[in-house]
Amino acid sequence: MRIDLHTHSTASDGTDTPAELVRNAAAAGLDVVALTDHDGVGGHAEAVAALPAGLTLVTGAELSCRFEGPDGFSVHMLAYLFDPLEPELARERELLRDDRVPRARAMVTKLNELGVPVTWERVAELAGGGAVGRPHVASAMVELGVIDTVSDAFTSDWLAGDGRAYVEKHELDPFDAIRLVKAAGGVTVLAHPFALKRGNSVSGTAIAELASAGLDGVEVDHMDHDEPTRARLRGLAADLSLLTTGSSDYHGSRKTCRLGEFTTDPEIYGEITRRATGAFPVPGAGG
């Protein structure tokens, strides 16, 4: 089995519609794909309706979280197979989504002050009704020739956590995220925790604390982790009895990663589905 547990569609900052994503996943030879758009589940119904025979869909989301404190920093929590109607988690997802628009507008304003003529109208158009985020702002910058690629925007010059045009948004405490997802019957995996190029790396101590709070796993095999980093993270996960996943973090044409570029061991996938009680994987019926 080939299993990719981290992808994005136009319901957040990917370029494939949910229907296109599942069709492309099947074409890429995947047996299982998780749709984990940022802070929302708006693409799930379309993905289910279009799901090809032979492909199983894992419903999920990538939740925006932040470690608090003077040196606080953002992290992402992958949540799988939770009940999307569970009220407390649904309210938090709504707060996370609602704060994205004023945040993106504020980043546009900062860029304008820096001499970059990005417009909110173009950023909103690029988001296409999905959850607007920094990749949409970055795409507008690429169109203007300010930077060459979307990844070039995620530096201290522009939109990284310490960037000149960065604006904070509402984010969950990661310990609260674990509690909420668990209460909704879901499974939690910390996304790309050692990805230094994204800003602060999560410390081993912090991961141990999250594990004590109920974290199920860590994303190990990811394009932002080199081989030594993966080995170090895998060893830490073994010490903490955490599951280890692999995935593409696919965003369509917005990033260079390919569907199925990294995959999850079938036994790990089986354990994730065993632990979940909020929802179940959806087998394709030839949609």
- Please outline the major beta sheet: 8 strands, mixed
**SS strand fraction:** 15-25%
Total DSSP helices: 10
Rounded mean pLDDT is: 94
- Stretches where pLDDT is under 50 for at least 5 consecutive residues are none
Rg from C-alpha positions? 18 Å
Number of strands: 8
Report the span from N to C terminus: 21 Å
Gross geometry: globular
Secondary-structure element string: EHEHEEHHHHHEHEHEHE
User: Which secondary-structure class do the elements indicate?
Assistant: alpha/beta
Relative helix content: 25-40%
Give a verbal description of the structure.
With 287 residues, this protein is of the alpha/beta class. It is 36% helix and 15% strand. It is built from ten helices and eight strands. The chain has helices at 18-27, 44-49, 87-98, 100-113, 120-127, 134-143, 174-183, 204-212, 227-240, 266-275; strands at residues 3-7, 32-35, 56-67, 73-80, 187-190, 217-221, 243-246, 282-283. Strands 1, 2, 3, 4, 5, 6, 7 and 8 form an eight-stranded mixed sheet that branches. Helix 5 (120-127) crosses helix 6. 48% of the residues are buried.
